[in-house]
Amino acid sequence: MQRYVLTSYEQSRGGTREVYDEFLRLSGAAEPPIWMTSLGHNPTLIRAYWEKTRGCLLEGELPHVLKEMVVFVVSRVNGAEYCSACHAHSALQLDPTLTYHDLVSILDPKSTVPLPASHRMALQFADKMARDANAVGDEEFEKLLKAGFTESEIKELLGVIDLAMMFNCYTSGMRLPLDPQYKALLES
């Protein structure tokens, strides 16, 4: 059973078209991604998803590439193929020195991926939050503070983790197919 209907740019109207236009302007993409077009039938819902995405992922204090890696890590934990591929693609676009294998192995203690220690700590925190947020104690937050993250940045990190969890649930529940550029990444 197909669980979604895609609303192309040409079919979009009103609030949906506004979201598509803003996404295209900010991302430089040629067309909206499948996750977005799967929400295109409902202007209120697509606006809500887009606002959260823009606020958590595209704005803020944390480096964009770190946020993309956080979403990738959380999505891998949750087995969310669409989000894993999408955010691996974005991270690799932002940092062409990385490879897909680097992202997959980034939390391995033997990883040689050049990454600031604070970023590795943020990714480990994201991994723990995705596995069981209730098991994350004060000491994990204190480690982030000692690594140089401000309270505001920690809240932003939590927002990115929450964004990933939301999209993991949505894209996996809808069984969305991969956009061609994400599929190509996994096949390389």
- Give the amount of beta strand, in percent: under 5%
By DSSP (H or I, 4+ residues per run), the number of helices equals 10
Distance N to C terminus: 29 Å
CATH superfamily assignment of the largest domain? AhpD-like
Domains counted in the coordinates: how many? 2
> How many beta-strand segments?
0
The largest pleated sheet is described as: none
Based on CA atoms alone, the radius of gyration comes out at: 17 Å
The helix-strand sequence is HHHHHHHHHH
Any idea of the CATH class of the largest domain?
Mainly Alpha
User: Low-confidence parts lasting 5 or more residues at pLDDT below 50?
Assistant: none
Looking at the overall shape, the CATH architecture of the largest domain is: Up-down Bundle
What structural class do helix, strand and pairing data support?
mainly alpha
> Looking at the structure, what is the overall shape?
globular
Please estimate the helix content. Answer: 55-70%
Protein name: Carboxymuconolactone decarboxylase-like domain-containing protein
GO molecular function, one term: peroxiredoxin activity
Domain Carboxymuconolactone decarboxylase-like: 48-93
InterPro entries: AhpD-like, CMD-like
How would you sum up this structure, described in words?
The protein is built from ten helices and no strands. It is mostly helical. It has two domains: 14-58, no CATH class; 64-187, AhpD-like (Up-down Bundle), CATH 1.20.1290.10. Helix 1 packs parallel to helix 3, helix 7 (117-132) runs antiparallel to helix 8 (138-146) and helix 7 crosses helix 9. The longest helix is centred in the last third of the chain and has 24 residues, at 151-174. It is globular. The mean pLDDT is 94. This is Carboxymuconolactone decarboxylase-like domain-containing protein. Residues 48-93 form the Carboxymuconolactone decarboxylase-like domain. It comes from Rhodoferax lacus.
